[in-house]
Specification:
Low-confidence stretches: none
Mean pLDDT: 85
Distance between the termini: 30 Å
Largest sheet: 5 strands, antiparallel
Helix content: 55-70%
Number of strands: 5
Strand order of the largest sheet: 1-2-3-4-5
Strand content: 5-15%
Number of helices: 4
Structural class: alpha+beta
Oligomer: single chain
Length: about 180
């Protein structure tokens, strides 16, 4: 059956796109005025908001492709893995990267232009640091796109940073059928 558009998600996606275009316009005006610092942050904000819009479009698109399914051998037994959409995860990582650049860049800019250490610099640096830690965990493979593994003994859902296992006998009203 054909899926319908999610109206609130479509409106939010459009709002993010408009905000991104507005930030791009602000960046152009800052460039005309010769304000290099403002230009950098407007451009990073524009990229972040346009990525957010793209994320919403990819995540909520009504005609999504079928998920990738693959057969794997594990400990001499076959399992089926249904993988989550990689594009959604990669867009999330790109958005967090932009948020890190925006937060850390603003923290440094405020620190350099003001005497002492303003509270806003500390807050922005903390937010940016959390983003950098997330990106580090992705780089180390501790956070990755999710999947659902279906094996002869049970199922194993894997989220971005959580893995679990549920034996088939624990699933209510389900019994194994072997062909």
């Amino acid at each position: 059956p054909r899926q319908k558009w999610n109206v609130p998600a479509t409106v939010a996606t459009g709002a993010a796109a408009l905000t991104g275009l507005g930030a791009l316009w602000g960046g152009l005006r800052a460039a005309e005025a010769g304000a290099g610092g403002e230009l950098r942050f407007f451009v990073i904000l524009a990229v972040l908001m346009l990525l957010t819009s793209l994320f919403g479009a990819v995540y909520w698109w009504p005609e999504r492709r079928e998920p990738r399914v693959r057969y794997m051998e594990s400990a001499g037994r076959g399992t089926t893995e249904v993988q989550a959409r990689t594009a959604v995860f990669l867009l999330l990582v790109a958005m967090v990267g932009c948020a890190a650049a925006l937060s850390l860049g603003a923290a440094v800019e405020v620190l350099v232009t003001n005497g002492g250490v303003p509270l806003v610099s500390v807050v922005l640096a903390t937010l940016g640091s959390v983003c950098v830690v997330f990106l580090g965990e992705v780089a180390l493979g501790r956070i990755r796109a999710g999947a659902l593994t279906l094996g002869p003994d049970g199922l194993g859902p894997r989220g971005w940073f959580v893995e679990s296992y549920l034996p088939w006998v624990s699933v209510a009203r389900l019994r194994a059928v072997h062909h």
